[in-house]
Structure prediction request, 538 residues.
Amino acid sequence: MNESSSPVEYSSSSSSSEGESFREKDHSDAMLKFISQMLMEEEDLGNKPCMLHDCLALQATEKSLFDVLNTNDDDETPDISSYSRVKKNRYREDTDGSSRDDRRSNKQLADDKFSDESVTLEMYDKVLLCSVLELEQVESRDKKPSMKQSSRGSKKKGIPAKEAVDHRTLLTQCAQAVASNETRTATELLSQIKRHSSPHGDGTERLAHYFAGALEARLAGTGGTFYSRGISAAEILKAYKTYITACPFRKMSNLYANKTIKKLADGATALHIVDFGILYGFQWPCLIHALSERPGGPPKLRITGIDFPQPGLRPAARVGDTGRRLAKYCERFRVPFEYNAIAQKWDTIKIEDLKIERNELLVVNSLYRLHNVPDETVMVNSPRDTVLELIKKVNPDLFIHGVVNGTYNTPFFTTRFREALYQYSSLFDMFDATVPREDRNRMRFEEEVLGKDVMNIIACEGTERVDRPETYKQWGVRSARAGFDQVPLDRDILKYVRSKVKKNYHKDFSVDEDGKWMLQGWKGRVVHAISYWKPSHN
Prediction:
């Protein structure tokens, strides 16, 4: 393998010493504290909708209008011809770095500034300087009540035993009736399912409640408005905090990616991270803290934060808000920082928008968001492939890609329903084993995140369906076709992540490896996967 496509080189220390080093310098708890700080200081979050739901609602609405204007699209009948591969128009090469300037970045930051607020440095100490021991104590404390609650199983005090119901069979039969336009049969089955499901019941009853609601919305044709009916960003953040405390998927992905970036950046004077799907920037506080401790001082950190536009007259405002928060962290830890906010459809981004500079270490990061970009089942010229082509063209030193491992992107409804039912059975079961059923934030997360995902997958068709995952193996084929070579996983970091999950989380969570992918799952079902890539120059 030639130099340009060789694996990333890491220092080879013993596993034990590496593990001790990671344990001393583990800042993965910063994400939880970051959310707490946002909730304490930003009172206006109670009046704002969820950032992700807001932009996905706009995306679905715009695509719905596109469907109306292009009447040849048929929501019910899969367009088999759309699977044919068409050669994509590539972006024009732009290798001249002399024309880059700061006008776009300055304009974005001027438009996206926050209202004035006081920042207490002592509070940021509490946010970022929490020890690993403290984190593990918190996780252990949070986990014990959940395990006790789980051990009670379905025994509900004061409630008579319910008749045995096979929710999955009923749901599958109902989905088949919906697909066949047998409205009377579907309505009768829905009535039966509703009598035996509840958002307050066990995991299976909650699963049935949200899938039944999605089937009912599909029958009524009302699924397209699901993202516009939501609670505030503050409530979503509280629910998300409960999720990442109970489940290791996001926190361990961030830990794995950030430790890899830190090792890669040893000796670099400038580090540029292009983050597709930055949202609130939860991934980066722990990296900022880690970079501040680098012997010889931190590199200059540049982050290009990319997300979908928000509704209204200031589509980039909340992506800019994220930059303001990160700037506060960098100022506190004396890490030189520059931020570039981009809020537009990802397949319309040009190389010059990213403001790549010479002699900087370039990392492209995208964790669990590319499945919201349309693929070739929606448009013949796949925007998903266009984004990958852009990433290859900027020639990053490393492309970190995390994917939701899903098999429910087929245009055939009954197959998609069945696969989604399997996938979300695992997620509702995971919550049932780790968080008490009466926990309000658990119920919020199930309703506002899992429930809305289910609604989109089941009740929406055509371009309104914005949740379109692929399996990690399908993503591997797509990435290789786009011109990337996969980079081996870091053995020491993988070992550390696996030990951390084993020590601090429920025994049924798993961390495995397959074909240079780190896999995270629940009871043997792969839910998330992460891998490293470099552009191929063969």
Observations:
- The chain is about 50% helix and 10% strand.
- Confidence is low (pLDDT under 50) at residues 1-24, 64-157.
- The first strand starts at residue 270 and ends at 276.
